[in-house]
Design goal:
The complex is a heterodimer of chains A (159) and B (358). By secondary structure, chain A is of the alpha+beta class. Chain A has 3 helices and 7 strands. The mean pLDDT of chain A is 85. Chain B has 15 helices and 2 strands. The chains are: A alpha+beta (159), B mainly alpha (358).
């Protein structure tokens, strides 16, 4: 019985090695079709990035220059290294009530680690990760970005 | 028809006719030395390029593709960089041993070349104990590795060298047994007669089951003996930075790097000689059109093609299998490969006596 187990061991080990070699050998044969390397500076126009690539935090605005940020500061609290600073103000509603809204959504790209925690924390999906990644600038202050556009306001119905 | 054999013979004859005393022999030594060093330099460039391309293909990458057409000159550029780099010797190192170790590793790889038959009739030294000579000399290379590890005065280097020592000493056994199977079937240690015995079919076809087992064991054992992944415990980047050549830089590092590839070439050439018929062309049956066409391909190309096929297989191993732990490595040798190869040698002996091979 010992011998049977021994031979079975050897055979299963050998077969699993062959399975591995079949996979890599198949890749070696099909490499010209399935290449995954992007030759980046050469193919800047046709560059394909994966959907979940995290380049920088942006705030999408619609055609009426409206965003979905309520200024709840959930992203600011979620950020592990104080990348986001939200400055709030109070809008006067038509009926005379005051309503909290964002004045400036300050985003420090130089501090960001692209961990995606702010996007997950946002209850209204007001911010998302963009696919841009060529962020080099010659002055550090250029990396401090204000994400809400001038004159933008919160979209109707977003609470 | 000009062949490498004719060229070698005419040079030999010309030297003997025109010179006397020890001069023809000394000049032949020099020619052989230059040829082998040239071969090694070419092998270093070609095999490193091949390794990088093969690894890239197996991982669906592109590999080097910027220097020259298709990245062909990448290794030449790398070598140039290594030549101009400073070859440092650490303060605490044993200077003499440290500097001599890379040369020992390199010289041993060169010495093993001596009995190899590169083409029909092209052999440096047709010694009657050819394959024994190869097995004996190849086990000396561990001294160079141990020397490098010890002289570096660095614990990582020493650990790598010790591991390498344990590994090479263990795997020598099963490599030796795999070689013995062919020696039993041929009945001769001389490389030329081993190749001639395969004129009517390579041993891998003629010897069926015992030779297949021996071939697989041989490939595993030589992968371990050349310290290549999945048996690269001597280097083990993730554990020992670079093992025995951690402290080496510049051209001395390049010599170790080159010796690794030279050793791969040598062991694959031996594998091709023993199992795949050396320079013998592929023949099926007798007197067929196919055989005639195969005979037109020069013997040196047959030898190189077989050797490079085996080198590809070893590279395939490297880019497929994960590295073994040291206890797993020794388990594999002492509990699996050695008993199997001992049983296999019995099988081969019975087969040789009863004439069960073709």
């Amino acid at each position: 019985m010992f011998l049977v187990k021994y031979i079975k061991d050897v055979w299963s080990g050998f077969r699993s090695l062959l399975t591995g070699m079949k996979i890599t050998g198949g890749y070696a044969l099909r490499h010209h079709k399935e290449k995954i390397t992007q030759q980046y500076p050469d193919n800047r126009e046709t560059l394909i990035l994966p959907e979940r690539f995290r380049g920088e935090v942006v705030m999408p605005h619609d055609e009426n220059n409206e965003h979905a940020c309520t200024g709840c500061t959930a992203c600011e609290l979620a950020c592990p290294n104080a990348t986001i600073k939200i400055v709030t103000k109070f809008d006067i509603q038509p009926d005379g009530k005051k309503k909290k809204a964002i004045d400036e959504f300050v985003y420090h790209l130089e501090l960001c680690t692209f961990c995606n925690l702010c996007i997950e924390a946002c209850p209204t999906d007001a911010i998302k990760m963009a696919q841009t990644f060529e962020h080099s600038v010659t002055d550090r202050t250029e990396l401090i970005k204000i994400l809400n556009r001038p004159g933008s306001k919160i979209r109707e119905g977003v609470e | 028809m000009p062949s490498l054999e004719n060229i070698a013979n005419s040079i030999h004859q010309w030297l003997n006719n025109n010179l006397s005393g020890p001069w023809p022999m000394l000049i032949e030594f020099a020619i052989v030395g230059v040829c082998i060093i040239g071969l090694f330099a070419m092998l270093g460039l070609v095999l490193i390029m091949m390794e990088r391309k093969v690894s890239a293909w197996m991982q669906l990458r592109l590999g080097p593709n910027r220097v020259g057409p298709g990245g062909m000159f990448q290794t030449a550029a790398d070598t140039l960089k290594l030549i101009v780099k400073e070859g440092m010797t650490p303060d605490g190192a044993d200077k003499f041993l440290f500097n001599v170790a890379p040369f020992i590793v390199m010289i041993i790889a060169m010495v093993i070349m001596a009995p190899l038959m590169f083409a029909k009739g092209l052999q440096i030294w047709d010694v009657n104990i050819g394959i024994l000579f190869v097995a004996a000399v190849s086990s000396v290379s561990v001294i160079g590795v141990l020397m490098a590890g010890w002289a570096s005065n660095n614990k990582y280097s020493l650990l790598g060298a010790m591991r390498s020592g344990a590994q090479i000493v263990s795997y020598e056994l099963s490599a030796g047994f795999a070689i013995l199977v062919i020696v039993i079937l041929t009945g001769d240690l001389r490389i030329s007669s081993i190749i001639n015995s395969q004129a009517d079919g390579w041993w891998i076809f003629k010897g069926h089951i015992p030779v297949w087992i021996a071939f697989i064991i041989f490939m595993i054992a030589v992968t371990a003996e050349t310290n290549r992944a999945p048996f690269d415990l001597a280097e083990a980047e993730s554990e020992l930075t670079a093992g025995f050549h951690t402290e080496y830089s510049g051209m001395k590092f390049a010599l170790f790097f080159l010796a690794e590839y030279a050793n791969i070439f040598v062991v694959c050439a031996i594998g091709a000689t023993l199992f795949l018929g050396g320079w013998q062309p592929l023949h099926f049956g007798t007197d067929t059109k196919f055989n005639e066409i195969m005979d037109y391909i020069p013997s040196s190309i047959w030898f190189m093609a077989k050797t490079f096929f085996l080198i590809f297989v070893i590279m395939w191993f490297r880019w497929t299998f994960p590295r073994l732990r040291i206890d797993q490595l020794l388990n594999l040798e002492w509990k699996y490969l050695l008993p199997i190869s001992m049983f296999n040698i019995l099988l081969a002996t019975v087969m040789a006596i009863m004439n069960w091979h073709f």
